[in-house]
TrEMBL record:
Gene Ontology MF, one: inositol monophosphate 1-phosphatase activity
GO biological process: inositol metabolic process; phosphatidylinositol phosphate biosynthetic process; signal transduction
Keywords on record: Hydrolase, Magnesium, Metal-binding
Residues the record lists as binding Mg(2+): 74, 89, 91-92, 215
Lineage per the UniProt record: Bacteria, Pseudomonadati, Pseudomonadota, Alphaproteobacteria, Acetobacterales
Cofactor: Mg(2+)
Protein name: Inositol-phosphate phosphatase
PROSITE patterns according to UniProt: IMP_1, IMP_2
Family classification: Belongs to the inositol monophosphatase superfamily.
Length: 265
């Protein structure tokens, strides 16, 4: 295997350090356990002071390090354009974060045009950092990861994300199809970590009917490097707006795709 592009390898290491510092900031600002300490953008869609602070911190640091790179954030939109573009979700799993729970993360992905090439997902309350560089592997705390070997849907675990933008009948139809396969359904409230769980083999699949680029940009290289199968999220509108994503281990991907009527790439 040839060495990775020095430019991309340098960016990944820089991103890991920046996200680490941002994660420590988020930990220091994390609310104690209890009722949500946040404002609501819409039903079950939360925003905390930390979201804005972390995004601004990462945006400023990445601009100083790589001024020619583009930047897009969940809260601030597209701040800069460039052939290389950073995409950040400052707190993915805000509903968990706002209640002092542990299942949340900071997600920073790098796109080269429309190709995801690198990603960092830092879940500081869990003590876990995922990294990936396209063509050179996916890692959890420095150890290589791969998708689950589970082949029997009746032995599998599938997570499905919930969104208030999805009509209840559509959500229930997909959930019924999952359960009809004999799988164990889950919902954890953090899309980036769920996709990382598919990459690491902790989950056999993840589905979300409406999800945004900032939620998945860092996870897409992880999934590719870990051998997971993924629906064509970017090709079906994910670069410019919300779209559907399905990721699964390669052994059950086809059966899951057929059951929930979501095509694979």
């Amino acid at each position: 295997m040839s060495s990775p592009s020095p430019a991309l390898a340098t960016r990944l290491e820089a991103a890991r350090a920046v996200v680490h510092d941002a994660a420590q900031m988020a930990m220091a600002m994390r609310p104690p356990p209890g009722g949500p300490q946040a404002s609501q953008k819409s039903a079950q869609d939360w925003l905390t002071e930390t979201d804005g602070a972390v995004e601004a911190f990462i945006a400023n640091r990445m601009k100083a390090l790589f001024p020619d790179d583009g930047f897009q954030g969940e809260e601030g939109g597209v701040a800069r354009t460039g052939s290389l573009r950073w995409v950040v979700d400052p707190i993915d799993g805000t509903s968990n974060y706002a209640r002092g729970r542990c299942r949340w993360c900071i997600s920073l992905g790098l796109l080269d045009g429309d190709e995801p090439v690198a990603g960092v997902i830092d879940a500081p309350a869990l003590g876990e950092v995922y990294t990936a560089l396209r063509g050179y592997g996916a890692f959890l705390n420095g150890k290589r990861i791969q998708a689950s070997p589970v082949k029997d849907p009746a032995s599998s675990m599938i997570e499905m994300g919930w969104s208030n933008r999805v009509p209840k009948p559509v959500f229930m139809e997909k959930m019924d199809a999952i359960m009809a396969m004999g799988t164990m359904p889950r919902s954890g409230g953090c899309g980036a970590l769920a996709l990382a769980d598919v990459a690491s083999g902790r989950l056999d699949g993840y589905i979300e009917i409406v999800i945004n680029l900032w939620d998945v940009a860092a996870a897409l290289p992880l999934l590719a490097e870990a051998g997971a199968r993924v629906s064509p999220f970017l090709q079906e509108g994910g670069l410019t707006g919300p779209a559907t994503i399905m990721a699964a281990n390669p052994h059950i991907a086809q059966a899951l795709s057929k059951a929930v009527s979501i095509p694979l790439a």
